[in-house]
Description:
Blueprint: H1 14-42, H2 52-57, E1 64-77, E2 93-101, E3 108-111, H3 114-119, E4 127-132, E5 144-149, H4 152-197, H5 202-222, H6 226-252, H7 261-269, H8 275-308, H9 314-343, H10 345-353, H11 357-362, H12 365-399, H13 404-416
Antiparallel strand pairs: 1-2, 1-4, 2-3, 4-5
Helix pairs in contact: 1-5, 1-6, 4-5, 5-6, 5-8, 6-8, 6-12, 8-9, 8-12, 9-12
Organism: Glutamicibacter halophytocola
Pfam families: YibE_F
Protein name: YibE/F family protein
Amino acid sequence: MGHHHHDEPILQDPKRRRRASIILWALLAPIGVLAMVMVIVLWPQGTYNKFALDGSMDTAGGATMATGTVTRSGVETCPSSQGLEDVGGKTLECTVTYVMPASGGAEIQMEIPPEMLQSRDARPGDALRYLDLSKVDTTSGSPYVFVDFVRTLPMTLLAIAYGIVVVLVAGWRGARAVIGLVGGIAFMIFFMVPALIEGGNPVVVGLTGATAIMFVALYFAHGLNAKTSTALLGTLFGLGVTAALALWLTDAAALTGANDESAMTLSTVAPQISLPGLLICGVLVGGMGVLNDVTITQSATVWELAETSPRASAKELFFRGMRIGRDHIASTVYTIAFAYAGAALPILAIAAMSNQGFGVTLGSGEMAEEVIRILIGSIGLVLAIPVTTAIAVMVVKATGTGGAHGKRSLFAANADA
């Protein structure tokens, strides 16, 4: 009979449980209401020019972005040098890619940069995106300029595979987590990004968006209960620490946020956007997922410990929970650092080949931003674990949660009576 109810909390005093819930909601409700109000206040009005970039690409007049499918490739006279012999020039040979436009018509010739072909050939069946200048009055050069490969199909298949694997392994909870992830990304696309483009305060937009996403995603994926509320409190604490550190270090370390092509494009077409502020917002969004992971795990750990050791003191529960938390800290910090180190291998390789050393490279604009992003996120993560553990212990003790062992004792007492 005991195994039938193994997952049910026992030895709970309804009054104490209610009091603990009231305390949690007294802390969370004002934050949730404030986040909802701020979302309404900051909701984008659509006042920015959605086609600013399209206009910047149309400077030649009549240029359009198009897609097509590779049919074949071969080494021939470069389209860009055709006709040069007529004016005393010399034609060159290169790899010419033939593409069938998605809009129909005859095959077109295109030159793909050799450095890109060195990494991967354009194979028959590959989808490409290119700039069509055929309607522009050009006197030289190819009317078709390669932009990038189209990766929609493989990325879509990978996303579907990811969702299937998560649902198969984690069941309904995994499905809810995936739905929450999709909803969170949609919220970022429709609220956070437009609000930033319209010139909203990046720190306020970032904190508001991250708080709203965490409220909905955590409760939707893990249920409306004290365990989730505890994790949410720990997550919000970590976000607050992350925001404070990011705000201070962006100025103290002279981070400009203008270290890549995308940032420079934004500063041109949307000068109202604060690039340092955008960097701070990015730190908050990046730290949000990691914080959610560790706080949920830590909260669940304390509950499991309390279920297996219902008579353990608050001090025992805290230190046993922190033993697990320390392992989680170590593994998560490794994950964050090595994930970026893997993405930054080309930069590290350049540093190894130069005489300026790794120290100078790490202090350069783009690398410094990523290193500081990792350190800020890690500090918020590390501090969130003991705070979440302490809150979880207080709530567990306030509700009197026990475990299967405690239930057995309760039934034995009833039998004796």
